[in-house]
Amino acid sequence: MKIALYNAAVVGECEKLEGFKAELESQETLEKNTVLHVAVKVAAARKAPYENGGKLGPIRKICELCPSLIRRANLKGDTPLHIAARGGRSDVVKLLVKETKSVDEVVSLVTMVNSKKDTALHEALRNHHLFDRKYQPEYLDVVKTLIYKNEELPNLINDDGESPVFIAAREGLYDFLEELLSCSSEYGGPCKTTALHVAVLLREEGEKIAKDGILPAKTGETKKTVLDIIGKLMEAKPDLIKEEDESKRTPLHYAANLPSHKKVKDSHEKVKKLLDLTAGPDDDHKYSVVYHPDKNGMTALHYAAHTGATKSIDELFERCSVCFEQVDNKGWTTLHFAVAGGSSDDSTIKYIIKNKNEKLRSISMAMVNDRDKNGDTPLHLAARIPNYDALSFLMDLPEVNKRARNNDNLTALDILKATGTESMDDLGLEKKSLANNLKKKTGAISSEAPKVAAKEDTQQDGELQKVGSQRMEDLDNERQVAGDNSEKGNLRDIELLVATLIATVTFAASFTMPGGYNNEGPDEGMANLSSEPAFQIFLVANTGAMALSTAAIFTHLNAVMSTFDRSKSSKADRSFNKANLFTVIAIIGMVIAFVAGTYLVLANNKPLAIWSTVIGCCLFFGPVGPRLLVSLVKYCYHYLVHVFEQLFNLFVCQLVCCCCCILFWCKKDDNSGNKEGEEENKHLQSSAQV
């Protein structure tokens, strides 16, 4: 698009726009926006000259000069109508509709969809909150205008599966819903949810709480509560309460799953509202939705028990007491869900069992020992989680069977002892107290032995107890070993990190010498203070620290590779110890290098240099010196002994052999020399006789 044409559309210069009349059809931006898109975008942003109450002459002029631009879509599929509806500009929407001449073209225009299959109606509903909801009445006017032009518009669904009614319900727009429900038959949303599903979840933040505890929903001209929105949807389509999402959950499941809150106690009110508006010839048909399980077999009552929504439990039980006996796919009863709920206290299970409703109290006590498919009772489950408060409460009930065994032949005591990583001697006070209490109530009978051996014979029970205790002790020992190995691994990781840091620091120090480098002369590039004793100490200590820390890293990595071979575990331990020694010595070298370097750069101020050296040495070697010296001597002693043993095994035997050979040859030479001397003496004697 030409810059002059673009600028004319932005600032609304009608005369300049007329000058481009022949080119309006072909001019567009890289995003395929026409000049009408540009002008409507500025108007949707409510910027000059198209702000509220501003002139719409430029937009009208473009429509008159090139009417075909009204239906042109950009790269995202948005028409100017989409953009105007998104900004809540009802005046622009009306202008675009008015400039479309025929009725059929108007119907076609308002039903046009973008790349996401959103109509202008979808855009208006989704963006009503822009500008801090200041222009919400205008958005409502946009909705009314679009519906008036095509009453089938609310039935169109976008790519996300959202109907206009669904969006309005999700946003809590009561006034918008009134307009949409008058002509809509589509209530669906993503994942097979409906407008009623999301209305149940509705709760706006920052609003003043109503007297009934419900947060007001945001609306256009009036404010209605969430219950009013639920009522409006149920009035329009009563069967919505039976509609399932893709997990087979109804809106009643959603409502029962809402937690009770101290300030906003709306979950039971929503449950009550849904049940009050449910239609049916009798209670059995009317409240059949209460029996309805989701794909996991969970009913609304199960959700309420799991969440701890006690008032919702009362509502559901009062309408349909038979549902209390339903179990899910795992065989869990309502009491199982009450124990396994998100709260860590006993409030839900206690509320049910000690309920003021005698009927609920009787049924719950009759089911307190019911088992799931794994054979677990609520007591087993409380021990497995563990929920100590619920466990303590259930243990105190005489009706609860403390000796009940599940399919793995475990009692609640066995499960409690096996939870956590600590041994029985190191249990927390609360857990230990519960375990001891449960042990007294169960008679201390273990269930770890095979089922066939579980008889009433006292002697055999004692043997089973020993077997179970031994197995539990073995389990504790295994966990202790695993914990020790984990701690060792963490310590070795820290050692590797320390060695790496030392190598990094000392490597950098090697190229940032104290005193700098010569920049001229025959010694250019050489260290300035290389002849100073302190510099030599710095260099030797820093180089040693660098070499030892690098050796520690290499030794550590080599030891890690050795751990994969169990036969080399002792070798790996020695390597880790060696790496630790290298790291410790490297730390000493790094401290010495630091002190020497500090002394070197402060050499012109001897008192300060001496004091810094003394302080540095005292603060390091004072606290750790004695212990460090003992550790080094101890390790070096063992290490030197080990080295000498290896040297002895490798070289002493060969050395002895060599010595023997040398002695042999020496003795042989002596014998030959003696023989030669004797012969010479004989020769001399014979010569003398002659």
From TrEMBL:
InterPro entries reported in the protein's UniProt record: Ankyrin_rpt (IPR002110), Ankyrin_rpt-contain_sf (IPR036770), PGG_dom (IPR026961)
Leader sequence residues: none
Transmembrane feature ranges: 496-517, 537-560, 581-602, 608-626, 647-665
GO cellular component: plasma membrane
Statement: the UniProt record of this protein carries the keyword Repeat: yes
ANK repeat residue intervals: 76-108, 374-396
Region (Disordered), start-end ranges: 446-470
Cell compartments where the protein resides: Membrane
Main location: membrane
Domain PGG intervals: 490-601
UniProt cross-references to PROSITE patterns, sorted A to Z: ANK_REP_REGION (PS50297), ANK_REPEAT (PS50088)
Membrane topology category: Multi-pass membrane protein
Keywords: ANK repeat, Membrane, Repeat, Transmembrane, Transmembrane helix
Protein name, per record: PGG domain-containing protein
Organism whose genome encodes this protein: Protea cynaroides
